[in-house]
What we know:
The complex is a heterodimer.
Chain A: E1 10-14, E2 19-21, E3 32-37, E4 40-44, E5 52-56, E6 61-62, H1 65-69, E7 76-79, E8 83-88, H2 90-98, H3 101-125
Antiparallel strand pairs in A: 1-8, 2-7, 3-6, 3-8, 4-5, 4-7
Chain B: H1 3-14, H2 21-27, E1 28-31, E2 36-38, E3 46-61, E4 64-71, E5 76-77, H3 79-84, E6 91-104, H4 105-114, H5 116-141
Antiparallel strand pairs in B: 1-6, 2-6, 3-4, 3-5, 3-6
Helix pairs in contact in B: 1-4
Amino acid sequence: MSNNYLQYGEKIVVDPGTCIYRQGEKPEKNPIYYIVAGLIKIEFSMIDSSPFPIYLQPDSTFGIVEPLAECNRLTSAFAMEKTMLYRWDVENFYLASSISWELTYISITGLTRLLRILNAEFGEKIGLLEEKYR
Amino acid sequence: MNEKYDEIMKIAFQAEEAINEEVIKKFGVKYSDKQILIKEGDIQQKIFWILKGSVYITRKMGKKYKVLTTLGEGEIIGEMSFFDKSVRSATVIAKGEVEALVFKKEDFADIFSASPQWTKRFLISLSKRIRYMFEKLNQITR
Lengths: 134, 142
């Protein structure tokens, strides 16, 4: 995969344990991230449950939902290893994705996977899963 | 370039403004009340852009369908299995008369590769839906 979409933003390196953003925070400057190398844990907590983790590997994007849906961070993001990220503000992210189907595809797939997880969680909460799957 | 390709490019660059009679004739499909657009469990690589009317997003429970939400004009549906190689996770049923543009994967890739507008529109649509699901999940766990 060529990384011609890694432009118009900046590369950053974070240490293990670094909190990239925290659930409930207002996304300052609306950054959207792409994992160049390393491992990121995305964690979200519902009111009555313990944090639910999702691990993201290189060539994944994260932090897209809040700037685009104009809300505070819905999840927290932590670096689990020394991690290299590429970061855009919203406008530059649009610019980068407009020249790259790959970045668009990665971003859409990331969002559809998250939506699928949320739908499954929701289905389970409202009792859509059959007893045999529990 | 063939005529169909020209129409795709027109949609890509002009978005809503490009939806004219010609486009509707090529990609438009009309559904009657209670007609199924997407069936849970199917593998179908089509994506729907609702132009008129609204649809129920449902899951089958026994012999009945439970309505999860309703989506209307301007919404894009069917994107999850389209991009994520999953079987259809819900059944989508027309709520009254519905008119939609129906694209196959090869059409949509062309639209995306040609248009920043579509990319933006689609990412925002998905993000809003995710935000909505977070809110719904928080509501039912209170």
